[in-house]
Amino acid sequence: MREISLPDTQATTALGRALARVLRAGDCVLLEGDLGAGKTTLARALLRALCGDAEMEVPSPSYTLVQVYDAPVGEVAHFDLWRLDGPEGVHELGWDDAREGIVLVEWPQRLGTLAPPDALRITMAPDATGGRIARLEGWDTRLAQSAVFGTGDASWA
Questions:
Q1: How confident is the model at residue 61 (pLDDT cuts 50, 70, 90)?
Q2: What is the rounded CA–CA span in Å between residue 146 and residue 19?
Q3: Fold classified for 2-143
Q4: How does DSSP classify residue 81?
Q5: Which of its termini does the chain have fewer beta carbons within 10 Å around, N or C?
Q6: Strand 28-32 vs strand 102-106: parallel, antiparallel, or unpaired?
């Protein structure tokens, strides 16, 4: 597990851009945390970086449940499963096809057993100073081998 301090929105955005550099087709990123924890801010930064457009509009998929983006690395699906009761409706949202590209999932606990065991799990939580802490679980070797994350928690910025 890797823990990263995110003192402000700019740090959360920098983390999203850094993560975009290591993603490839077939990857799944699970974003956990309470309402207001910074999941959507992180997802927006990651999507903008993947698509190469820092000003791209990235609406929250809270009501549509999934937004799909065409990025140079392939199709990226951003799921927000807050309104689902469980994994039953995920297939109807195109889950199986989306897994061929890159998938970002907010509220991944709604996936149940559909959550890929090889996913990068990021848990966002507030810290005592008003910032956030991001806990990254999974991909330890992959992140360590990346020039972006390779030399310690400060190297991603």
A1: low
A2: 10
A3: Rossmann fold (3.40.50)
A4: -
A5: N
A6: parallel
